[in-house]
Amino acid sequence: MATSSAPDAGAKLAEKAEVRDYFNSTGFERWKRIYSDSDDVNKVQRNIRLGHQKTVDQVLQWLQEEGDLPGRSFCDAGCGVGSLSLPLAQLGAGSIAASDLSEAMVEEARRRLEASGLAAERVQFSASDLESLQGRYDTVVCLDVFIHYPQAAAEEMVRHLGGLAERRLIVSFAPYTPLLALLKSIGQLFPGPSKTTRAYTLREDGIVAAAAEAGFRPRRRSLNQAPFYFSRLIEFERG
Ligand SMILES: C[S@@+](CC[C@H](N)C(=O)[O-])C[C@H]1O[C@@H](n2cnc3c(N)ncnc32)[C@H](O)[C@@H]1O
Questions:
Q1: Sheet holding 73-77, edge to edge
Q2: Is residue 173 in contact with ligand 1, taking CB distance under 6 Å?
Q3: Is the CB of 19 under 6 A from ligand 1?
Q4: Residue of 3, 20, 157, 169 with fewest CB within 10 Å of its CB?
Q5: Is the CB of residue 235 below 6 angstroms from any atom belonging to ligand 1?
Q6: What atom of ligand 1 comes closest to residue 78's alpha carbon?
Q7: What is the pLDDT of residues 80-99, one digit of tens each?
Q8: Is the pLDDT of residue 225 over 50?
Q9: Which CATH architecture has domain 9-238?
Q10: Is the pTM of the predicted complex or chain greater than 0.85?
């Protein structure tokens, strides 16, 4: 069951190790297929794919509307298999640093970069957790990663990522709603029988307040949905 209380440091580390293990094993196999055009997915997984694609497409649209992609630097925090970074590189983004907790996801992202025919240096993929990210980027994006963060930790992470962003911060997360709160277990958002990680819904006002503490205000929002997928996307700008 999702909770919003902040676990202690030991529990946080244990939960992160669990998430890493999951995305290096059964989770890797599952999400690699969801984030692909493979037919080897069930109905739930296909719907999650559709919903996630809406989120990625919305971000790409916002970034293109902003213009000057070649002049901007991007950080794709928790990049998975590169579902955002690869099309962003195709669109000509200046530099992209993309990282993920899971070595397997990063390895798959590198493989897809190579298969795409793009030059290897167009995206710098690395294995790293969000907490270790450093540097300064024009835009920091973190999509569908906060599902693994309880409220207080997610807010802390928004402040951290905001500190890396010069101009813009874009995050998506499963929003807390009374309807979702009624679900017995938010694990129902995960496909298939193996729900080996906990999942958290987040209160949007807390995320917005954390971004404000880092100097950002909301500019645009969207709610991207499909059956079994429900994700609030917010673009924050400095000021
Ligand atoms: C649902 S996938 C989303 C991937 C990608 N952002 C996308 O939208 O395609 C969640 C990803 O978050 C990564 N992740 C989970 N906890 C993380 C952490 N603490 N630091 C970095 N990545 C993390 C997982 O390994 C997984 O690849």
A1: 123-127, 95-100, 73-77, 137-142, 165-173, 229-238, 216-226
A2: no
A3: yes
A4: 3
A5: no
A6: 22
A7: 999 999 999 999 999 999 99
A8: yes
A9: 3-Layer(aba) Sandwich (3.40)
A10: yes
